[in-house]
Amino acid sequence: MLSIILLRLQRLKGEYHVFLIMTVLSLVFSFIFGMTQSQDFTPTVLIVDMDESTYSQMVIDEFKNDNTFRYSVANYDAAATQVEDGKVLASIVIYEGFDTDIRNNNIPSIGVIKTKEDRDIFTLNSIVANITSKVIGNTNIAEIASIYVSELADADKDTLFDKAYNMAVEDWRYKKPVFIEASTLEQGAGFSDDNLTHSIIGFSLFFSMYTIVFAIGEILNDRKNNTWQRVLVSPISKISILGGHLVVTFLIGLVQVSVLFISGRYLFDINFGVNLGVILLILSAFVFTVTSLGLFLSGIVKTHSQLAAMTPIILTGTSMLGGCMWPLEIVNNKIVLALANITPQKWAIQAMESIAIHGKGLNEVVFPALVLTVMGLIFFGLGVKLVRFE
Amino acid sequence: MTLLQISNLQKYYKDVNAVDSISFDVKKGEVFGLLGPNGAGKSTTISMISTLIKPTSGQITYNGESILENPKAIQQKLGVVPQEIALYPSLSGYENLKFWGHSYGLRGNELKNRIAEVAEIIGLKDRLKKKIEKYSGGMKRRINIGAALLHKPELLIMDEPTVGIDPQSRNHILETVLELNKQGMTIIYTSHYMEEVEFLCSRISIMDKGEIIASGTQEELIEIVKGQKKINLKFDRITKELTEKINSISYVQNIDTQDEEMVLATQNGDNIFKDLISKVSETDSNILSIDIKKPNLEAVFLHLTGRALRD
Fold first, then answer.
1. Is the residue at B308 inside a domain?
2. A167-174 contact pairs (CB < 8 A, 24+)
3. For the residues B85-98, what does the mean pLDDT come to?
4. What is the CATH classification number for the domain harbouring B274?
5. Does the CB of A227 have a partner CB in chain B at under 8 Å?
6. Mutate which: A234, A238, A388, vs B, most B CBs within 10 A
7. A383 and which of A295, B80, B107, B124 could share a cystine (Cβ 3.0–4.6 Å)?
8. pLDDT: is B4 or A147 the higher one?
9. Distance between CA B164 and CA B38 in Å, rounded?
10. pLDDT score at A132
11. Please, which residues have CB within 8 angstroms of residue A77's CB and are 6 or more apart in sequence?
């Protein structure tokens, strides 16, 4: 095995610049994608007021007090065009008759023009429902109050309604009947930018997989150069030949992911927590799994070109499924979530995040590490079976 | 003394019978030749002897021990020069030799000294610093041979070691083979170049379509075609009529044509020139050259298969 390890290191020495370029590019792209996904971007929502009533104005005022999105008023055509062109997230349309619907206690005519269904649209729908309910509630309160007071005192009912409505609104604003206190569980210092941390973890694992798979795929180049066959007729055993390739690939992979994470820590000030030993453990399990996956893929294909064609499809697909590109928390599809469980990336990210973002310790990563190891052993067994020793 | 014994060796690839029940033995200290055209099954046979592939059936023994049951019995004592260049292109000649020596258990000064000796043998002393990808074809071939010599193998298998190289490198390789044999190394040499096998080998097996069609010393093999002549003819054009006319000459036993060349195997005839020229003159073809050769292994192959031993 020593001969093969020394050989691979010697070859790596001659091609170290490739390793360096791969590592630097991985780091740059991880950071770019991470920054893109963590930017504080507020989507714009247009409001079309076709009713142009007092009630519709009340609703518009309520929207403008909401900070989740940026709201502005537009006409219907402009709103529809901008949604279609993707320039705004969506448009809220307050249809004609909104006023009457509220007065008659009917469901008010309000709709949302959208071109997609995502997390932001889901949030917007929820805000529209809340604000509409709130306006209806306040209106009812003001209506009842104005009728009641005007019967007691000989006062103008409309003036009383306005005063009662404004008071209700003010009361909601400053003396909410239900008070929800939202707080973030603080697990230690420096866990503020979860999105960037997730992206750096996800993309670092994603890019490092390429290095690992292609490093073990060198056995296909050896076959093409006929050196694989020549080594097989030497006294080096098959176990030692494979072992040598696997050990060096594992080391290359581990060094690269470690460099990526260390660079993230010191160049971009990303905190991966304090459990560095546990992080190294989960990284080792991940690199082992991907090395074995690379062996398995090298066993399936016949040439390095075939491996080069197949690898991006498999790695990108499983990385998307496994949550390297975005957090799995935003995925609702049960099939996708179930499929994520069979990707190594999902378990590695889960374990890494539980350490880096939630500040957990060894106990939280034992199960993901075990899953990764079992996956690695399965790929290893299949790889050994499929790799051609003739 | 028999060093290597091959008995009823067979290798099937799905429906293709690449090697069909062949048997031969290699004696210690000889240069044994496996002669045959491309696709005859020589490389498959070599791959089975060198433990790279397992035979479908049959037996291979080295020094009386089955290498199918115990591949280690031969691996340390065997040097293999594969037909294709089997070197790491991004490493230098020296680094390649170092790795192959290391893989056969050589270490430290022993390895260093042996690399120097092998560099001398293959004629590349002081020329090992370049990367393999920068060497010429002939130099790569020499390093390819050198890599098999580092551990001083008892048996050296050379599979078509001179394919695609310049005459100078080819001569150097042939001289090297003879020199190694003089030093006591047993060699199995496969080639489709009849001249190389005639030059090097004391005993020869001729292979075709997976079978051994003849075995023996050169003299024994040539005895098969005793009394025959091999005539190489070159025409300006070869037509069906021409082939039929020549075939009608009673002592012409075999005709093999390729492009404008025709190879005839004939029994000695007193009027061979006269008859040939007479027949050709009856056609539109013209003879450009005639070359009559003494019986050799090419004639043996032609006699046994009806085909010339070409690439």
1. no
2. A167/A142, A168/A137, A168/A138, A168/A141, A168/A142, A169/A138, A172/A134, A172/A138, A173/A65
3. 94
4. 3.30.70.100
5. yes
6. A234
7. A295
8. B4
9. 14
10. 84
11. none
Residues of chain B neighbouring A219 (CB-CB closer than 8 A): none
| Structural domain includes residue B271 | yes
Range of the domain at B247: 227-294
Note whether B82 contacts A226, CB cutoff 8 Å.
yes
The rounded distance, in Å, linking the Cα atoms of B303 and B311 is 17
Query: Is the distance from CB of B204 to CB of B196 less than 8 angstroms?
Result: no
Same domain, B43 and B10: yes
User: Cα angle at A358 between A356 and A363, to 5 degrees?
Assistant: 90
Q: What pLDDT, in 10s, does the model give residues A204-238?
A: 899 999 999 999 999 999 999 999 999 999 999 88
- Mean pLDDT in residue range A167-186: 50
Confidence at residue A38, expressed as pLDDT on a 0 to 100 scale: 57
Q: Which pLDDT does position B46 carry in this prediction? A: 93
**Distance (Å, rounded) from C-alpha A246 to C-alpha A288?**
9
For B122-145, the DSSP string reads TT-TT---SBGGGS-HHHHHHHHH
pLDDT at site A185 = 40
Neighbouring C-beta atoms of residue A327, cutoff 10 Å: 15
Residue B237 lies in a domain: yes
Angstrom distance (rounded) from CA B87 to CA B157: 17
Residue of A nearest to B133 (CA): A225
Q: Across the interface, do A233 and B72 touch by the CB < 8 Å criterion?
A: no
To which residue do tokens 């690839």 refer?
Answer: B13
Answer yes or no: do B269 and B285 share one domain: yes
A230 and B75 in contact by Cβ < 8 A?
no
What is the distance between the alpha carbons of residues A166 and A169, in angstroms, rounded to a whole number?
5
Side-chain half-sphere CA neighbours of B147 within 13 A: 32
Question: Which residues in chain B touch residue A390, judged by CB atoms under 8 angstroms apart?
Answer: 47, 52-54
Picking from A255, A243, A311, the residue whose alpha carbon sits closest to that of residue A283 is A255
**Structural domain contains residue B311:** no
The token pair at B225 is 């075609």
Instruction: State how many domains chain B has.
Output: 2
Specify whether the CB–CB gap between A127 and A84 falls below 8 A.
no
A39 contacts chain B (CB < 8 A): no
Are B287 and B169 in a shared domain?
no
Distance in angstroms (rounded) separating the CA atoms of residues A260 and A28: 10
Q: Provide CATH 3.40.190.10 ranges for chain A.
A: 44-174
CB B74 within 8 A of CB B153: no
Residue type present at position A108? P
Task: Report the pLDDT value the prediction gives residue B168, as an integer from 0 to 100.
Answer: 86
Classify domain A44-174 at the CATH topology level. Answer: D-Maltodextrin-Binding Protein; domain 2 (3.40.190)
Alpha carbon of A143 to those of A51, A102, A135, B68, B219: distances in Å?
20, 11, 12, 99, 125
> pLDDT tens digit string along A249-259?
999 999 998 88
Chain B residues with beta carbon closer than 8 angstroms to that of A14: 90-91
